[in-house]
Structures are given as C-alpha cells and as structure tokens.
Specification:
The protein is an alpha/beta fold and about 400 residues long. It has helices at about 100-105, 115-140, 195-200, 215-235, 250-255, 295, 300-305, 315-320, 335-350, 365-370, 380-385; strands at about 1-5, 10-15, 20-25, 30-35, 45-55, 55-65, 70-80, 85-90, 140-145, 155-160, 170-175, 200-205, 240-245, 275-280, 325-330, 355-360. About 30% of the residues lie in helices and about 25% in strands.
C-alpha cells in the first residue's frame, strides 16, 4: 500500500489496489484537490472536483492525466458516517453509471465552471450569433446554398474579400445541439470564419434537418450530400484540401464523414478530405438512449451503436491514413465527453492515424468552440496550423 498527499487539502490518504481509496477526511464541497499518486498501476496525477449530489451520494470526479491525455474517473463519496468516507474510483464506462444518472452526465450545461446551466446556454447562443454576424459584416459570403430540398439543408460559404479563392483550403463546420436544438444552425455557426479566412481559408457552415422531424439516419445522409457538394466545389476551385470540423453532435457527424463506406451514398472523392477537428464530440451514442435526449432521437441501443463513430473506427481509420485528426476537449467538459474523446483519439492513434489530443484549459463544453472567433485562441491556431496556413 502506497501513501500520497492531497496538495490542496494537506490531508494524507492511502491507496489500495483495484482503485479503492480511503480518504482520511471528507473534502469540503466546491474545492479542487490535486493528488499525486505513487502507485505504479494507475495514472500519476488526479484532480478531484466536487460536481453534485444524488440521493445519499456526493459525486466527485478525478481528471486523470496520463501520457498527455485526460480521462474522466467516477468516484462516489458517501455522505453517511463521520469524517471517514469510502471513495471508489475507476475509469467510467457506459455501464458504470446508473441509468438514472446519465441525464446529468450528458448535460454539458450543468458542468460549466463559469455560470449556471441556463445562463451558459444563453451566453453561448449570444456569443456565436455575435461572431457569426461579424463574419457576415467582414467577409465575402455566398449564402443559402442548397444541397437538399428542405429549408435547413443549406450552407454558407465565407472568404476574405478581394482574395483569390483558388487553391484555398476549405474548413467545414457542423453545429451541435444533440441533433435537435433548433436555436443552432448554419446561420449562427460561422463565428470562426473571420480568423480562419484572414489566414487564407474558405469556411463553410452547414445546416441540416433535426430530430424528431427526421431520423438520425436521414441527418447523416443529408450531411453526406452536403460533403459531396463541398468536394465538388473544392475540385472546381482547386482547393489544397477539405478539413471537416464539428462541435458536440456536429463532431459526431464530422467523424462519420471520415469514412466512405457508411452507406450506399458514396459518390464523393474522400481523398480530398485532409483532416478534421472534432471538438467535445459524441462518439458513442448508446448512453444517450437512456436519457431524455432520446425522446427526440428515438433510437434503440442497437441503432445508436450502429450510428456511433466508435463502432466504425476501423473503417474511419482505413480511410484516414493520410489525414491528420485533432480531437479537442475542454477542461470543464463533462467527464463522459472527455472519456469518449480520449477513447476515440486512442482508437484512431492505435490504428495508425496521425492524431492530436488537445485539452483546452479553462474552457467548458460551450466556450471551447465559441472562442474559435478569436485569432489568438489556442484551438484557432491549431486549426490554422492543420490547414498549413
């Protein structure tokens, strides 16, 4: 048995095998604990953060840092008893969280370190709308280009004014919103266009229909049609490459577009897709079937797995040997989102794909993407570097 110190609290704790921890004292709520571990079988550093209550349990999370990659680890702190509480920790898997708790774990607005759930959503909408308006005012725009027969099946294309479009890399963005939030669309998804276009890129924001009006299968086919049209545009303009990106549910869609054998609709030349930026993505949809999100999605667990990038990672990897894929998460993303991103990045890397896992400090699920409107933001610089600009 090894001993380690909690640097934030000064309390001594001990560690046993199989990830059982006994804390000498219960940590105070709303405090963060950096814990250095000497045990050889587990990652070396953990950050314990209080996240909320459920019944008789406090929920704490350990952000595990190992080989530059952060994964979420669940702990349960018993409220019963005196100063001594048993904490059991382990890497979170889909089945390790009770079904009744999954709504909480997959509600990113409840994990922000900056503000409350409703406030952070309202602030997010305000910020991306502001950034998208700036793109309209500042850049040359080709608006409402239809790729299908419904109102949301449109895309907007942005370039820097008076700059040659020929040869420019094309950055494609798919918005999030759990495939159902109508306040998100192409109209407020061009907020990153100014710094990327100023660097020399063309930026395209893509809209798509939402559940429950259409199924997720239909959304995926719509996005494939959009990518087919973008590939055609890239060939016409002799683009040096197409780079797919997306946030949350949009990262799920972008990841699926990295394979060319997903459905019978396979008319585009995927060789032009040179890379991707997948931000705070959903790569295993199965947990959502146990949440209120599924009221709109209406997926069985089997359907959710069929539509999950993690179930198709072999095909994605085969098609992505020539690509560079960035997977990014916010420091204050929900641990489940961090876990899924970490597993997706590792799965691709283990299959020979060039990847980067970027853990963006002091960001949550929302401002990790909205800050792409800032030229000096870490992830903006990574996008520009990815495109060779």
């Amino acid at each position: 048995m090894d001993f380690f110190e909690s640097s934030a609290s000064g309390k001594t704790a001990c560690i046993e095998s199989h990830y059982h921890r006994h804390l000498q004292r219960k940590p105070h709520r709303e405090r963060s604990y950096d814990i250095l571990i000497t045990h050889d079988d587990i990652p070396k550093k953990m950050k314990w953060v209080y996240r909320g209550e459920s019944n008789k349990f406090d929920y704490w999370y350990a952000i595990i840092v190992n080989n530059g990659m952060n994964l979420g680890a669940k702990t349960e702190q018993l409220l019963e008893g005196d100063d001594y509480g048993l904490v059991t920790a382990g890497i979170v898997t889909m089945t390790s969280i009770p079904d009744q708790e999954l709504d909480y774990h997959y509600s990113p607005s409840r994990w922000s370190h900056r503000m409350g759930a409703q406030e952070v959503i309202a602030e997010h909408i305000k910020n991306i709308e502001k950034g998208s308006k700036e793109s309209l005012w500042t850049l040359e725009a080709e608006l409402e280009i239809s790729y299908g027969d419904t109102e949301r099946q449109k895309m907007d294309v942005f370039h820097r004014k008076d700059v040659q479009k020929k040869g420019a890399p094309i950055f494609v963005y798919f918005h999030g919103g759990y495939w159902q939030i109508k306040k998100l669309g192409r109209e407020n998804s061009s907020f990153m266009a100014v710094p990327l276009c100023n660097a020399g890129a063309t930026v395209i924001s893509v809209g798509y229909d939402l559940t429950p009006d259409v199924s997720m299968d239909t959304i995926i086919l719509q996005v494939k049609k959009a990518v087919h049209l973008i590939i055609k545009l890239a060939k016409e303009r002799e683009s040096r490459g197409v780079y797919l990106s997306g946030h949350s549910a949009g990262a799920h869609l972008a990841a699926l577009m990295l394979m060319s054998s997903f459905s019978d609709y396979d008319a585009f030349d995927s060789e032009l897709i040179k890379g991707a930026v997948l931000v705070s993505g959903v790569f295993d949809v199965r947990p959502l079937t146990k949440t209120s999100t599924n009221d709109s999605l209406k997926l069985t667990e089997e359907e959710a797995w069929r539509l999950s990038p993690m179930s198709l990672v072999d095909d994605i990897a085969i098609q992505s040997r020539h690509r560079h894929i960035i997977i990014a998460v916010g420091e204050y993303d929900p641990p489940e989102f961090r876990r899924q991103s970490g597993e997706m990045e590792k799965a691709l890397r283990d299959r020979g794909v060039k990847t980067n896992y970027i853990d963006v400090p002091d960001t949550d699920h929302f401002n990790i993407t909205e800050k792409l409107s800032e030229a000096k933001y870490k992830l903006t610089k990574e996008c520009i570097r990815l495109m060779g600009l």
